[in-house]
Specification:
The chain is of the alpha+beta class and 333 residues long. The chain folds into two domains: 159 residues, no CATH class; 140 residues, no CATH class. The protein is 52% helix and 16% strand. The protein has 13 helices and ten strands. A hairpin with a 2-residue loop joins strand 9 and strand 10. It is elongated. The N and C termini lie far apart (97 Å).
Length: 333
C-alpha cells in the first residue's frame, strides 16, 4: 500500500540557544530541518521519520551534554527507554553501532513543547500539516493544524474545522430572511453580515458588559468613579439599554486587539482577562453618543489600560487586607 505524502511546516523558527543537544539530535533526525539566523526551522516534504536511527556515540554525547535538563521529560524518556537498555562499557564497536529510537510514545511535538516551556522568548509554535495520496485522488487530501504552547498541544484536522464551519453555517438565518430583515441579522452577528460571533467574542462581550454594569452601579450609588465612567453613564441614560448592548458588540474586536497587545504583560504579572483586563479596558474608554472610542495614540491607550489594571489589583489587595486586619482596640489600665 502506497503511503500518503505528508508535508509539515512549523513557525516561528526555534532559537538555537533554547534547544538542548539531545533535542537537536532528535528533531534533526525526525524532520528535515534548516538553521537560519532566526533559529531552527522544522519542516518535511516526506513526513516525520519514526523510528529514527542514530549512532550510539552521538546519542550518548548529546545526552551527556544535556545533563542540565535531566528532569525534562525527553531526557527521562531517553534514559529509561533507550540508554538503560544499552550495554555498559566503552567498546568502539558498540559506540559506532546504530541505535533505533521508537518515538511512538514520545512524538516530536512533545520535544518542541519542552523547548517552548523553557524558552524565555518563544511563546508558541504553530504546525501546519497537509497530506495526499500520490494518485492525487480527491478524497485523499487532508490537512491539520497544531498550536504548541507550554500548557498544551492543541490539534485540529481539516475535517474538525469543516465540521465547526457547518455548525456555524446551520446557525445562520436563511439567506432570504437575512436580506428581508437586516436588523434581525445584525442582532446575531458581530458586525459584518454573515459573520457570527465566536465563543471567544461572546465571552469577551459578557465580560465587558459585566464591567460596565459594575461601574454604572458605583456611579449610581454616589461612589467616586473616573470621568470616563460618568460620561458612559450619561450616554447610557440618554441612549438606553439596547443601544448600550449594541455598543458592546461593536467594541469587542477592539477589546481583543488591545488584549493581544498587552497579553504578555498581563500573563507575566498574573492578571486575568475577566477580573483585571475587562474592567481596566472599560474604564479607559471614552464615550460619545456614537459609542465608545479610544482617545489619544494607540501606545498611550495601552499604557493607560495597564495602569488601570495594576491600580485595580492594588485596590483589591488593600480591601482584602483591611478586611482581615480590623483596627486594634486599646484597653485602658
Amino acid at each position: 500500500m502506497t503511503p500518503l505524502e505528508t508535508r509539515i511546516y512549523s513557525r516561528p523558527p526555534i532559537p538555537l540557544a533554547d534547544i538542548s543537544p539531545l533535542e537537536m539530535l532528535l528533531l534533526t533526525n525526525v524532520l528535515e530541518c534548516s538553521e537560519t539566523e532566526e533559529g531552527l526551522v522544522l519542516f518535511t516534504d516526506f513526513g516525520p521519520t519514526n523510528p529514527i536511527r542514530v549512532p550510539r556515540s552521538e546519542l550518548i554525547t548529546a545526552f551527556r551534554a544535556s545533563s542540565q535538563y535531566a528532569e525534562d521529560p525527553l531526557n527521562i524518556f531517553i534514559a529509561d527507554r533507550v540508554l538503560s537498555l544499552l550495554p555498559a562499557g566503552g567498546n568502539t564497536v558498540e559506540d559506532d553501532a546504530m541505535i533505533d529510537i521508537d518515538l511512538s510514545q514520545f512524538p516530536w511535538p512533545f520535544v518542541v513543547q519542552g523547548i517552548v516551556a523553557r524558552s524565555a522568548d518563544l511563546c508558541e509554535v504553530t504546525v501546519i500539516q497537509w497530506m495526499n495520496h500520490p494518485s492525487q485522488r480527491p478524497e485523499s487530501f487532508g490537512a491539520s493544524v497544531s498550536l504548541i504552547t507550554a500548557k498544551a498541544i492543541h490539534h485540529a484536522t481539516s475535517e474538525d474545522i469543516l465540521a465547526r464551519f457547518r455548525i456555524q453555517d446551520n446557525a445562520l438565518p436563511p439567506a432570504a430572511a437575512s436580506a428581508a430583515s437586516p436588523e434581525a441579522d445584525g442582532a446575531l452577528t458581530g458586525g459584518a453580515a454573515g459573520d457570527p460571533f465566536t465563543v471567544k467574542e461572546i465571552e469577551t462581550a459578557l465580560c465587558i458588559w459585566e464591567a460596565m454594569l459594575y461601574f454604572r452601579g458605583l456611579h449610581q450609588d454616589g461612589r467616586p468613579v473616573p470621568d470616563n465612567i460618568v460620561r458612559m453613564s450619561e450616554v447610557w441614560d440618554a441612549a438606553g439599554w439596547q443601544a448600550m448592548r449594541s455598543h458592546v458588540r461593536e467594541i469587542v474586536p477592539f477589546a481583543l486587539d488591545v488584549h493581544d497587545d498587552v497579553s504578555e504583560d498581563l500573563e507575566e504579572e498574573g492578571f486575568t482577562f475577566d477580573f483585571d483586563f475587562a474592567p481596566a479596558f472599560v474604564e479607559t474608554l471614552s464615550w460619545s453618543e456614537d459609542g465608545a472610542f479610544r482617545e489619544g495614540e494607540p501606545d498611550e491607550f495601552l499604557e493607560d489600560v495597564m495602569v488601570a489594571v495594576r491600580r485595580h489589583r492594588q485596590d483589591v489587595v488593600a480591601r482584602n487586607t483591611s478586611s482581615f486586619n480590623p483596627p486594634s482596640c486599646q484597653v485602658g489600665s
